[in-house]
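Technical appendix A lists one of the benchmark inputs used to test multi-chain prediction within the project. The record comprises two sequence entries:
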Amino acid sequence: MDKTIEQLITELAALRRRNAELETAASQHLRETEKSRQAFLEIEKRYERLLSAESRLIQAEKMASLGVLSAGVAHEIKNPLAIILQGIELLEVSLRREDFGDVLAMMKDAVFRASKITKDMLTFSRESTPEVAEIDLANVIDETFSFVDHIFSLKQIRIARNFPHGLPKVKVDANQMKQVFINLLTNAAEAMPEGGTITLSAESTENIRNRKIIRIIITDTGHGISAEDRQRVFDPFYTTRKKSGGTGLGLSVVKGIIEKHRGDIKIENGACGGTRVIIELPCNTDESPREVTE
Amino acid sequence: MKKILIVDDEKNFCALLKLNLEKRGPFEVLTTTNPHDALQLAKENRPDLILLDILMPEMDGMSLAAALKGDKDTKDIVIAFLTALVNEEDVRDMKGRAGVDYFFSKLGTTEELMVSISGILS
């Protein structure tokens, strides 16, 4: 009997040892599996980055060709448009309005729309290198207000500005930045046909990569942005405002400029409705802007 | 009556702008599509204003403006570029280099052009 108990104890000890060995092996296996999973995720992430770099490279090549092409096309299209415009204007002073109603005005609008498309296309495709200087972004935004002020007061749009004192200066191309803010403020205004408030705020902070940045947030009280529009809103020629003459290039231009300044831009729905645009620009003045879009 | 000379290689544009300007203001408008004839026309007719296209196949507006500004008979005539070029910075640069005082977009309305011309000629 004692022998059987001893034998059982020995077997139990052996089983415990074996169990411990198996647990060690299992946890080793789990660690290796986890490592493999991490490695797989890393490979997947790098592959995505590679795809994205490839797609940006293709886009940059296309843009370079488009830049040359569009300068010529814009001029060649504008000349016949100018002839059509002159013809319409001659008819306007020669014909009785009651016979034609708004036909001539509609034709004229079409001419101006086509002209705007050629201009936007050229701006979009131009790969101009930013002429940078160290500037106070708040001043640039204030100057931008002077361009849009009259439109905003007509549309009953109020601007709330929340810029703390002593924001660090940033190394940017002031004119390109003005274009960014004009486009964004105009978009915000378009989203509020009944009027509303555009709030601009800025802060000096760090981004997720621990880089010192200036974050500018523009929030409107308009109708917000759908998930589909959010995905495609920076795509060239994608517009939600076709009827009101949008060419779908404004936000592409904005994104191009921000990226050339090594910044980031994203668009999301505001916490209390409306749309929120977040721009992050690096404060590191030693870092030159990108010469070409990557 | 004030005289205006339009120099543009687009024949139809010249014809229609001439009609538009003559309908709207007390102007005598001369046109030519050939920049080489423009200098002679300007000498003979002494217009008060020359509206000059920039991109023309035979001679560009910059060279013609330089020739007009370099000739004693035409150097005082006011020249304005009237162009379909879209990049305002480029045009501003050309305007400065050619000694031209004004530039107008071909895609502005005739009404806007009339206001500018009246301002220049008054």
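The mean pLDDT of chain B is 87. The first strand of chain B starts at residue 2 and ends at 7. Comparable benchmark entries are summarised in Table A2.
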